[in-house]
């Protein structure tokens, strides 16, 4: 697959990843390589990654526990301390190998250690490949609030080796698929249509869909790297989706939702809001709801659940002057940003989802 040029860095695919990596490590003569992984990546992905890492530069591996609950400042502090004790200097490089938690957190650690050192992202989940590793957003959660602390800082490269997807359970593949569905809904109707029948897709089809999804996100980010306008389109499904994800994360009586599972619910809810604002037709809304519902099982919500999720909206990082702002669909393949929605309409969206 062809290399994609982003803002100041490149996104390499499959066999091109390791050619770039070997050449760059040799050319830049880094003092040390620090590989940041979580416990899942360490077990399933590190053997293959290390087998492809051709270098004589000293390597240190820093591991933390897997899971969104560890995407916090405490984990960063642990890694910053490990880097210091292991002699990391400004000529060191961090390679983040893992899913979105690893690339988000590892990028934040690298961007802030000694005021910033080079880092490379090697996403190993579908979600990270098509979303978390592209666009330079790095950060951590604050309590149960998603991505409250962070920076926008680009890696020197993103290396996407789809071979790592073979290590994923189906739930993780579904989670990543949500962002691909979103990319079609916000910018490319023809791309969205390809997800109407997933049963006929083979490995080559998936590779092409991943490549195309990265192109869509990269096109948006390249035009608006600091999220002043167009990039807000990528928030479709995420305003309510993040609130749902946060609520289920903090509530011990709820089974934690994967990011994509929460975003899938958010996309249905926010498609309903688009319908109510007369931005979507009834047929378009039913099409969206049907495709997503076929992939993701319905999640039950009590009235108290809905109330708590809505209460969390005020903490969404996209809000301005205390007002909740949504990116809504303006037909399939287009978005209208900065739409204000009253709570009564959000309750209606949840009622429609439950029915």
TrEMBL record:
Obligatory cofactor(s): Co(2+); NAD(+); Zn(2+)
E.C. number(s) listed in UniProt: 4.2.3.4
GO biological process: aromatic amino acid family biosynthetic process; chorismate biosynthetic process
InterPro entries xrefs: Dehydroquinate_synthase, DHQ_synth_AroB, DHQ_synth_fam, DHQS/DOIS_N, DHQS_C
Its biological purpose: Catalyzes the conversion of 3-deoxy-D-arabino-heptulosonate 7-phosphate (DAHP) to dehydroquinate (DHQ).
Database matches in NCBIfam families: aroB
Full protein name: 3-dehydroquinate synthase
Gene: aroB
């Amino acid at each position: 697959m062809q290399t994609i040029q982003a803002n100041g860095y490149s996104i390499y695919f499959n066999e091109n990843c390791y050619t770039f990596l070997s050449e760059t490590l040799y050319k830049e003569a880094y003092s040390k390589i620090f590989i940041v992984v979580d416990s899942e990546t360490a077990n399933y992905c590190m053997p293959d990654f290390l087998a492809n890492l051709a270098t004589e530069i000293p390597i240190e591996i820093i591991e933390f526990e897997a899971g969104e609950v560890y995407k916090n400042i405490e984990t960063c502090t642990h890694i910053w301390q490990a880097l210091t004790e292991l002699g990391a200097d400004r000529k060191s490089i961090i390679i983040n190998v893992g899913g979105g938690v690893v690339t988000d957190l590892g990028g934040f650690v690298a961007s802030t250690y000694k005021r910033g050192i080079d880092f490379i992202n090697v996403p190993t989940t579908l979600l990270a490949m098509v979303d978390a590793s592209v666009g330079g957003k790095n950060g951590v959660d604050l309590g149960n609030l998603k991505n409250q602390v962070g920076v926008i800082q680009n890696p020197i490269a993103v290396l996407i080796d789809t071979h790592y997807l073979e290590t994923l359970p189906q739930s993780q593949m579904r989670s990543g698929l949500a962002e691909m569905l979103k990319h079609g809904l916000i910018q490319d109707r023809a791309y969205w249509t390809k997800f109407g029948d997933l049963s006929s897709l083979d490995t080559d089809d998936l590779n092409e869909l991943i490549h195309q999804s990265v192109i869509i996100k990269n096109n948006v980010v390249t035009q608006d790297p600091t999220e002043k306008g167009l990039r807000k389109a990528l928030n479709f499904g995420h305003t309510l989706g993040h609130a749902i994800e946060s609520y289920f994360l903090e509530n011990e009586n709820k089974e934690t939702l994967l990011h994509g599972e929460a975003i899938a619910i958010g996309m249905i809810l926010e498609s309903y809001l688009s319908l109510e604002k007369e931005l979507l037709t009834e047929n378009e809304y039913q099409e969206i709801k049907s495709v997503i519902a076929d992939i993701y099982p319905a999640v039950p919500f009590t009235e108290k659940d809905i109330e708590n999720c809505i209460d969390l909206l005020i903490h969404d990082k996209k809000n301005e002057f205390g007002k909740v702002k949504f990116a809504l669909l303006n037909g399939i393949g287009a978005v209208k940003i900065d739409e204000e929605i009253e709570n009564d309409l959000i309750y209606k969206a949840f009622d429609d989802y439950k029915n």
